[in-house]
């Protein structure tokens, strides 16, 4: 084994260990974070929930892996459908199995990243949209009654876009160091493992 592949293997193990270590934090998937009337409250919400962080980083990672127009179109789809999910929740529409859907979105994204999967575009957009709908619905349902969610929603969307961007930049930087590319795939495996652990916990 050359030094590059050894380093990638070692970092892969670290990625999995990090995912397992952080998995218990996911068990508290959707506590309400911050002031629902403020941009700051919306900004901090996705950054304080590990399920959000993993899913949104995952969208950025997978979009960058796919490349081309999907690099921007998949994150944009997530943002748009997540907004729709929040609006539906605030309008009183309830979706069954929201928490399970959120965990499933993290698991599926993790597996797709780990496999560097090249699904057809329609299937890729369906996967991202489904996850976004569950995430958005959960956030909309958490808003207190009577809260004005506009500033909160803008903050949440900005933080989500930031997490997408971090995932995308990670892949770009990894491609400049070829030995780092396996680490991105191991990170996807760690995401899936964390979600699977919670599923049975």
Instruction: Give a count of the beta strands, DSSP E runs of length 2 or more.
Output: 0
> What radius of gyration results from the CA coordinates?
17 Å
Query: End-to-end distance, in Å?
Result: 37 Å
Overall shape = globular
What is the helix/strand order? Answer: HHHHHHHH
Mean pLDDT: 80
Instruction: Give the structural class.
Output: mainly alpha
| Largest sheet composition | none
Number of domains: 1
The proportion of residues in beta strands is under 5%
Count of runs of 4 or more consecutive helical residues: 8
* Low confidence ranges: 1-34
> What is the percent of helical residues?
over 70%
Summarize the structure.
The protein has helices at 3-26, 39-47, 50-66, 70-90, 98-115, 121-142, 150-176, 181-200. It is mainly alpha-helical.
Give a structural overview.
- This protein is globular.
- The termini are far apart.
- With 201 residues, the protein is mainly α.
- The chain has one domain.
- It has eight helices and no strands.
Question: Descriptors for this entry?
Answer:
mainly alpha; 201 residues; 0% strand; disordered N terminus; globular
How would you summarize the topology of this molecule?
Layout: H1 3-26, H2 39-47, H3 50-66, H4 70-90, H5 98-115, H6 121-142, H7 150-176, H8 181-200
Helix pairs in contact: 1-8, 2-7, 3-4, 3-5, 3-7, 3-8, 4-6, 4-7, 5-6, 5-8
């Amino acid at each position: 084994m050359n030094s590059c592949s050894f380093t990638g293997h070692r970092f892969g193990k670290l990625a999995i260990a990090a995912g397992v270590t952080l998995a218990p934090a996911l068990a508290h998937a959707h506590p309400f974070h911050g002031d629902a009337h403020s941009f700051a409250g919306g900004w901090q919400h996705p950054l304080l929930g590990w399920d959000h962080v993993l899913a949104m980083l995952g969208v950025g990672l997978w979009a960058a892996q796919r490349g081309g127009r999907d690099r921007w179109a998949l994150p944009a789809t997530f943002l748009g459908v997540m907004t729709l999910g929040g609006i539906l929740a605030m309008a009183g529409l309830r979706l069954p199995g929201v928490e399970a859907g959120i965990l499933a979105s993290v698991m599926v994204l993790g597996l797709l990243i780990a496999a560097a999967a090249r699904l057809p575009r329609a299937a890729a957009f369906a996967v991202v949209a489904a996850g976004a709908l569950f995430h958005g619905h959960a956030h909309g349902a958490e808003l207190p009654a009577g809260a004005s969610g506009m500033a909160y929603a803008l903050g949440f969307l900005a933080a989500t876009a930031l997490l997408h961007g971090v995932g995308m930049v990670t892949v770009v930087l990894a491609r400049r160091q070829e030995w780092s590319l396996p680490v991105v795939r191991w990170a996807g495996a760690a995401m899936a493992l964390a979600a699977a652990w919670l599923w049975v916990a």
